[in-house]
Amino acid sequence: MDRRAFLVTGTAALTACSVPGAAGTAQVPGTAPTGVVPDWEWVRAQFDLAPDYIHMSSFFLASHPHGVREEIERHRRTIDRNPFLAVHNQSDMPATIAAAAAEYLEGRPEEVALTGSTTMGLALIYHGLPLRAGQEVLTTTHDHYSHHESIRLAAGRAGATVRKIALYDEPAAAAQDEIVDRLRRALRPRTRVVGLTWVHSGTGVKLPLRAVAAALAERNASRPDGDRVLLVVDGVHGFGVEDEAVAAIGLDFFAAGTHKWILGPRGTGVIWGRDGRWADIQPTIPAFQHELSVAWIQNRPPAGPTRATWVTPGGFKAFEHLWALPAAFAFHHQLGRARVAERIHQLNTQCKDGLAAMKHVRLHTPRNPQLSSGLVCFEVDSMTPEAAVARLLQRRVVASAAPYATSFIRLAPSLVNSPADVDTALAAVRSLAPG
Ligand SMILES: Cc1ncc(COP(=O)(O)O)c(C=O)c1O
User: Fold this and answer.
1) How close is the Cα of 61 to the center of ligand 1, in Å?
2) From the CB of 234, is ligand 1 less than 6 Å away?
3) Which atom of ligand 1 is the closest one to the Cα of 197?
4) Ligand 1 pocket check for 197: Cβ under 6 Å
5) 150 CA from centroid of ligand 1 (Å)
């Protein structure tokens, strides 16, 4: 492959030739027959999950639903038959994928970059931000390793400082006004970025992002544009659960893997960035973009400000996975964002109600659906989270222990579960009662 062909692959069409049997333009497979509103049993049947387990950790990594599996397989066959031409013939795929993501989050395709995970998205944002020595990134004690480390590494390079605050002391008692107030009071003149997580995977608390964004907008009104406080959110555990138009929340950047609640191919993710904010980002990994490769060939810097596509990492990928991502958004589209949110919240409420009634259990996730989402965190008296998780697994309930300094047991009822599954999981937790 010549060097120009290598660089433009995946974006600009090199040739218009097609391979017999090669995938054509983006084709999203049907899920349920058109016009049929799928019921939850049908939804559950789309997964190849082992039926002898109660799967309560699906937030960790998606099992691909049928439509996504089929799409991966279709693309894999095409690539295996003729890798070179299959990839060239899909040069419009990144735009198609960005359009599918944009439709789901109610933004514009030009606002979406494609990544491989939440971790990659966060790293690309923080390393790309125009942080300077003397500026500060304000974050919280509730965020994931990937978020804190992205901040630490980027701030270290820039000579910026990092400060972590708690937005609540007891997760079960978290309150919107207090969260917003603590954040507002923590802002300092040198705070340039606020890094938050939509749904905390250590406690199950969901942040009131709209209220937070409004408070920051108020503060930013008196700041010059180059000095605005930017709001960066790790959205992975709300994305695919909540009925929220992410692009309308008031964030600057939002990173999420699409291989958890979105049920997309493993190794996929997105960054959404508000219009105008992408110009602030210095790309970290060379993007395989036509205009960038042309600039390189002409030995000049690329013309114009950074755009989202310049932040999508280049390099060859597991294309069959990447290209199958629209099928996951189609699955959600068919189910409807509001119905998905209602179903997941119902199952989680059932789970929390059941746990709250057990004397040997301390529930840490708020009961209020405004402040919680698809994760339920709790403790069992006189038992470490790891021991409890092991005991639940003996009863074929797949729970997890949160990887945080203070660790709780997590159950995450999702679209792969039924109310009967939740009852079975609750019975297993009940059996952990001492004596
Ligand atoms: C809050 C949060 N952010 C980020 C991650 C990492 O996600 P990814 O595997 O998509 O990088 C996790 C892992 O589950 C998480 O809980």
Assistant:
1) 9
2) yes
3) 1
4) yes
5) 12
CA 335 to CA 327: how far, in whole Å? Answer: 12
Cα 416 to middle of ligand 1, angstroms: 20
Ligand 1 touching residue 118 (CB < 6 A): yes
57 lines ligand 1 (CB under 6 A): no
Along the 435 residues of the chain, how does pLDDT read in single tens digits?
A: 333 333 333 333 322 233 333 333 344 454 666 666 789 999 999 999 999 999 999 999 999 999 999 999 999 999 999 999 999 999 899 999 999 999 999 999 999 999 999 999 999 999 999 999 999 999 999 999 999 999 999 999 999 999 999 999 999 999 999 999 999 999 999 999 999 999 999 999 999 999 999 999 999 999 998 899 999 999 999 999 999 999 999 999 999 999 999 999 999 999 999 989 999 999 999 999 999 999 999 999 999 999 999 999 999 999 999 999 999 999 999 999 999 999 999 999 999 999 999 999 999 999 999 999 999 999 999 999 999 999 999 999 999 999 999 999 999 999 999 999 999 999 999 999 997
pTM: 0.93
Ligand 1 center from residue 304 Cα (angstroms) = 33
Query: 257 C-alpha to center of ligand 1: Å?
Result: 7
Domains and CATH numbers, the chain: 94-333 (3.40.640.10), 337-430 (3.90.1150.10)
